[in-house]
Amino acid sequence: MSIERPVTGVILAGGLARRMGGGDKPLRTIGNRTILDRVIDCVAPQVRALVINANGDPARFAQWPLPVVADSIEGFAGPLAGVVAALDWSAQHHPDITHVLSVAADCPFLPGDLALRLWDAMTGNGARLAVAASAGQAHPVIGLWDVALREELRHALTVENLRKIDKWTARYQLVEVTWSAALIDPFFNANTPEDIELAERLIGEAEEEN
Fold first, then answer.
1. Which in 10, 20, 63, 196 has the greatest CB count within 10 A?
2. pLDDT 10s digits, 41-69
3. Does residue 11 come out as left (phi exceeding 0), alpha (psi in the -120 to 50 range) or beta?
4. Is residue 46 domain-resident?
């Protein structure tokens, strides 16, 4: 896939994984591969640059040759803090890039046309932001963010104490792009041990069909 779109990718791995019993969810394995490996393999070909957003010791991600960017806003302000960190990193290191594609680090089945479809829908509708959806549900953590909005987002987080993504995105023209979930929901989250078991089963069934 051609990477003509000026997009940086960020894998949001800053969650506390309480439902998984603590630890880093993306480092759990599904089908003998970490979820993070699956996410990287999917997203890296779709973007010009890719970073991991995570707090704590970055050494735990040392085996992956990607920058690890921590939240610049203190207090675990949620995924929006990770988005701000990625917008800042992209503006500093790739000033020619206009947007950041954010994905959750616990989504092992992300689609290979994620950046393309979000970009085309956003630009085609004159929107500032785009988010993914499936099975009648929007996934606001998975979307395209305009780098030019980073100071407005920072203000919302630090001054307004805003935490909900959809409350912030509602301030701007937003386009929602839907993917089919008929076989496997591409935005399936591996949040619990039960989710890991289900993902293992889904991958096994897919491999048998192929």
1. 10
2. 999 999 999 999 999 899 999 999 999 99
3. beta
4. yes
